[in-house]
Amino acid sequence: MVLQVTNPNNVKVYTVSGSGTRSIPDWLARRNKKTLKNDPGLDFEFPEASIKVKTTADNKFVIATGVYKPQMRVFEYAETSMKFDRHTNAENINFIILSDDWTKSVLLQNDRTIEFHAQGGLHYKTRIPKFGRDLAYHYPTCDLLIAASSSEIYRLNLDQGRFLNSIMTDAAKGVNVSIINPAHQLFGFGTEDGTVEFWDPRSRSRVGLLTPRLPSSLDSENSIITPDIQITSMKFRDDGLGLAVGTSSGHILLYDIRSSSPWLVKDHQYGYPIKSVHWYNNAVGDKGRGKVISADCKIMKIWDRESGAHFTSVEPPNDINDVCVVPDSGLIFVANEGIQIGAYYIPALGPAPRWCYFLDNLTEELEENPQENIYENYKFVTRKELANLGLDHLIGTNLLKAYMHGFFIDLRLYEKAKLIMNPFAYAEYRQRVIKEKIEKERASRIRVTKKLPKVNKELASRLLEDEEKKKRKSNEPSVNPLKDNRFGELFTNPDYQVDENSREFKLLHPSLPKKRKSSDEDDNYEKSESENNESNNDDDDSISSSRSDLDSDEDLITQLDKLRRAKSSSSKLKDELIRSSNTQSKKQINNKSRRIEIR
């Protein structure tokens, strides 16, 4: 498993699951589900999109709703997989988990129905007069509060099993949000008119009215009332005093319910309605405390509740529908318009959950050993390459999978088609590899070279040869005559250059040309033979160590090199035969050339 990492505002955000986390197409991931069984994001998805996602009170399950077809799915933390799915007749708007686990839940559907689900399945279904928008459950009285597109808040008592008198608000258009304070059970209703009404459940009467005021400028003390504003989301803080209000203009206002003025106004700067607001103060560590998590359809922002300073943000590729924060951890679930439910891990907010403790190890390994994802057993080809291979007739079949501007094809089929189109490609490739290997070995071979002076090179060469012969015979250390200071100018001053073509030199050294030629020929012959043997041995060792199946090609090339060297040496000897006037040297050269050709 490889996690994608982003660093907005120098805070690392790891994408555990969501759109773009996989480097392979969805159809290939579904085919290889067995190999992805250790992936926490396995099956954490819907066929089209997810609408709402929530965790149970016992922190063992997560429940999500989505489409298409409309359904509810339950995922178990211990198995990191889906426990079951349950289909419904209509799309879900919101749901509430009544029990500590997944066994009891209430679903508000978009066809004005309310479904009660138990462990065995659908338990009961009823309808409301208007289209519902939000749900809230009051545990002390067992009242289910249903906000709808009217001024009434429908009350359905689950203990008595009947509707009670509705709560009549002053909203002219409808109520968008209904919440209950966890500390003192105060009801809060956000209306489409842009007001927030507070009701006491004991007297069922309104105890307060809040009209959010957006400042014309964040730096100005003057504020104005925006007439078209709507309340789209609200959240009470656990201490019972804090209230976060999200508006349709993309602003979040933080209130103390004892005051009618917000102590902080945060602008998302996108202009989209706020869909979710969460108070985040349960994480371990100073960095995770005092934060607010707010989200519109484009971005989820995490910021400080006191100063409004930006902490970090997450911007998924698909529109956001809902946000769920896993308690006491840095893991956040995001329901979105993509197939996979987004899961983002932020170590700066808190540790990984107990059921997903290995996330910390994965993040550490990702920092130490980054890996790249590749397409295994598949080759990506464009339409033009497919036509060149003669496989364009396979378009539309199961052998090709359309992806972006081309297709994925099985690697074995691609190699077979390429071999049929060019059957000699592999042979040419082998020959090219052999040649490159031989040239590389030759270039790395250590050669002993003797530096000869510019003046009297032939004389210096003869002197060095004589010293080497004496060394071989007497086994005594040889002395380099070129380094003798007494004869230094002989090899540096051009005035001392010996003219070997002069008549005097030939009279003094009548046998020197013949010996020099014969010795040069012997040296050339021995050198060519030694080079052939060395190249054969080196080539055999290098190629046999790399590829044992290329011995036949190596032998062929080495034989060609031998024949070429033999021909070159024989041609040199023939040229010397033409230039030589000595009959005895003619016989020797003929014998040597005949011996080389026979070999």
From TrEMBL:
Transmembrane segments: none annotated. Pfam families: Beta-prop_NOL10_N (PF23098), NOL10_2nd (PF23097), NUC153 (PF08159). It is found in: Nucleus, Nucleolus. GO terms for cellular component: 90S preribosome; small-subunit processome. Gene3D superfamilies: YVTN repeat-like/Quinoprotein amine dehydrogenase. Residues 374-422 form the Nucleolar protein 10-like second domain. Residues 463-490, 503-599 are annotated as: Disordered. GO terms for biological process: maturation of SSU-rRNA from tricistronic rRNA transcript (SSU-rRNA, 5.8S rRNA, LSU-rRNA). Its main location: nucleus. Residues 3-369 form the Nucleolar protein 10-like N-terminal domain. It comes from the Eukaryota. Keywords: Nucleus, Repeat, WD repeat. Residues 484-511 form the NUC153 domain. Residues 579-591 have a biased composition (Polar residues). Belongs to the WD repeat NOL10/ENP2 family. This is 10094_t:CDS:1. It comes from Ambispora leptoticha.
